[in-house]
């Protein structure tokens, strides 16, 4: 019932919008910005909190909580009748876990590797020769025991699979610098061509060197305990394109719907995805000259998986039809900065496809006009705009900061605390609603509203017409993507 009522209402609206092209119903930046209300953004945040409750405080892809977020977005967009919406569902290997290593009563500070298998292994620790990148480095003494391998030269995944091939029962990789590795991945879910993965963890360089000295003076029995879930999970992107507007000049905006397993992800990326959803829900009050498409991406935290899956599925012509892409990932950080992706490359020397400079400058003037300071942030492809850059689509976006530390100068510009992370709860259980900076969230959401409204009317400054290099999209490096998640690098070697 409800559905058919809203369809009728939307059809009436579409007719009136279509009947009066170019008049006061045409989308304007100012009106769209004014339609972005704090109360609506907070309602979306409340919904995300509810979703995370369905799966132990997380909205990681493949969980009930994440599915609930996907359903919420799809349902809200469908109810407007203003969009053609689509779920793009696919399967991807989920992985989450913890690792613990103890030896001689010492509990080591241990990091788990993404795709590392679960297990509980107690055995003597045996040092592997060289860097453990070749079969010959693993002597027969490794069999049945825990292989201790130094970091370096080749992927962690290769070392762990070679240890498995040599019959090791477990493996520990120690860092080649004093501290811990700081987040590692085996990159591939399995390496059947090399050998089976064994329960594994990593320890700091200091601990590794001390452990080797200890082994040199007598047998050391260790225990590796890995608690992990590794399984294929079905998950979905949500795409929504306005029924109105020129579909050969599509303005695109996107953000990711998943969180990390450790927390509910209300800033990362509840803020970006819900900011864009709210824009999408207000947009139906107007008509657009160029079509507007929203992409709500799954599994960004696993290496931009959803956005890449979608971009790679497009034909060269479909890619050429996308005039530009705007990315919203973390726009309500508690100790925020107003960062703009450095599309012109003048700050970080990584330049986006032509037109990315124009997007950066548009956001710069948005903040300037609001009397606010903004700063560039590296345009390195570590969020869902990466696959768009690889496909040659001009891109840009805003970011209020993650684990980086605020400088003294920035604290003068934006307030907050110098020497403290922009988001101290980044990728943790504390990424909750009460830790959002709602002022920054509104400011950035209005920034996206401004960019969407501006470009939906006029693509001046964005190169059009030339066919993009279709081959380019094939250059997307899966390994590079899998190594990076949400402005944070997981090390693969
Ligand atoms: C939530 O945690 C409990 C206990 O740790 C576990 O049994 C359950 O499977 C978890 N539920 C989900 C949806 O992950
Ligand atoms: C989430 O949605 C996918 C795709 O529709 C479905 O296959 C899966 O079973 C759902 N997972 C949960 C935990 O509900
Ligand atoms: C393993 O380590 C994690 C922290 O890394 C800790 O939360 C967990 O309780 C430990 N598990 C065991 C069985 O010691
Ligand atoms: C690992 O196995 C040993 C026995 O082999 C057992 O004593 C220990 O409790 C197990 N550890 C965990 C965390 O289950
Ligand atoms: C900028 O990057 C280009 C190509 O990647 C390189 O040749 C050039 O030396 C870099 N310039 C600076 C100032 O680092
Ligand atoms: Zn993110």
Automatic annotation (TrEMBL):
<keyword id="KW-0645">Protease</keyword>
<dbReference type="GO" id="GO:0008235">
    <property type="term" value="F:metalloexopeptidase activity"/>
</dbReference>
<dbReference type="InterPro" id="IPR007484">
    <property type="entry name" value="Peptidase_M28"/>
</dbReference>
<dbReference type="InterPro" id="IPR045175">
    <property type="entry name" value="M28_fam"/>
</dbReference>
<keyword id="KW-0378">Hydrolase</keyword>
<comment type="subunit">
    <text>Monomer.</text>
</comment>
<feature type="domain" description="PA">
    <location>
        <begin position="121"/>
        <end position="211"/>
    </location>
</feature>
<dbReference type="GO" id="GO:0004177">
    <property type="term" value="F:aminopeptidase activity"/>
</dbReference>
<feature type="signal peptide">
    <location>
        <begin position="1"/>
        <end position="19"/>
    </location>
</feature>
<feature type="compositionally biased region" description="Basic residues">
    <location>
        <begin position="470"/>
        <end position="493"/>
    </location>
</feature>
<keyword id="KW-0479">Metal-binding</keyword>
<feature type="domain" description="Peptidase M28">
    <location>
        <begin position="237"/>
        <end position="450"/>
    </location>
</feature>
<protein>
    <recommendedName>
        <fullName>Peptide hydrolase</fullName>
        <ecNumber>3.4.-.-</ecNumber>
    </recommendedName>
</protein>
<keyword id="KW-0482">Metalloprotease</keyword>
<keyword id="KW-0031">Aminopeptidase</keyword>
<dbReference type="Pfam" id="PF04389">
    <property type="entry name" value="Peptidase_M28"/>
</dbReference>
<keyword id="KW-0862">Zinc</keyword>
<dbReference type="GO" id="GO:0006508">
    <property type="term" value="P:proteolysis"/>
</dbReference>
<feature type="region of interest" description="Disordered">
    <location>
        <begin position="463"/>
        <end position="493"/>
    </location>
</feature>
<dbReference type="Pfam" id="PF02225">
    <property type="entry name" value="PA"/>
</dbReference>
<dbReference type="InterPro" id="IPR003137">
    <property type="entry name" value="PA_domain"/>
</dbReference>
<dbReference type="InterPro" id="IPR041756">
    <property type="entry name" value="M28_SGAP-like"/>
</dbReference>
<dbReference type="GO" id="GO:0046872">
    <property type="term" value="F:metal ion binding"/>
</dbReference>
<dbReference type="InterPro" id="IPR046450">
    <property type="entry name" value="PA_dom_sf"/>
</dbReference>
<keyword id="KW-0732">Signal</keyword>
<keyword id="KW-0325">Glycoprotein</keyword>
<keyword id="KW-0964">Secreted</keyword>
<dbReference type="GO" id="GO:0005576">
    <property type="term" value="C:extracellular region"/>
</dbReference>
<comment type="similarity">
    <text>Belongs to the peptidase M28 family. M28A subfamily.</text>
</comment>
